[in-house]
Amino acid sequence: MDYNKAASYWTEKEEKAFQMNRDELLTRVEEFIMTHNTCALATGFSDFVRCTPIEYTYKDGTFWLLSEGGLKFRGLEGNKNVCLVIYDEYTGLDHLGGMQVNGVAELVEPWTSEYMELLALKNISAQKLKKLPTTLYLIKITPTRIDFVCSEIHKLGFDTRQHLCFSDSNADDLDLHG
């Protein structure tokens, strides 16, 4: 098996792809993100890998995930680079919708102003949360790259698979709609 050849498929294809205007693509990406609320979060390091279905909130170009714990934190301890996937049910090639988001995760300390802001956004009572037997952890994921597959974009004349790259200096560009 030529793994390098297989791995380079999309990289080579992207070089010739008809890409959508960045701002228009960003709008479509965010629309897709906002019409969903669950992702598969992959974490890992060394020979440990974990993929967890989990609810997210999207705010200010960042994904916010509340969790009671679990093995995903073993992966986060060893490697802050993560991947999350959001997708529609597959019903055929003319109805594709999904994205792979690579990003960097950080844990937000419980009860800080950032933590409390997310609770308020989600209408979660801090008093009720403090009564739970465990503290909920808050994972903040800042995207570095998004690969978006959308048949609707193809109908407009663009390649079905589009991508956005973000550096630390333009990660804030991800949020267009507040």
TrEMBL record:
Official protein name in the record:
Flavin-nucleotide-binding protein
Please name the taxonomic classification of the source: Bacteria, Bacillati, Bacillota, Clostridia, Eubacteriales
One Pfam assignment: PNPOx_N
> Which segments constitute the Pyridoxamine 5'-phosphate oxidase N-terminal domain?
28-150
Which domain of life does this protein belong to?
Bacteria
Q: Which InterPro entries match?
A: Pyridox_Oxase_N (IPR011576), Split_barrel_FMN-bd (IPR012349)
Q: Which organism is it from?
A: Ruminiclostridium papyrosolvens C7
The record's annotation in Gene3D superfamilies points to: Electron Transport, Fmn-binding Protein, Chain A
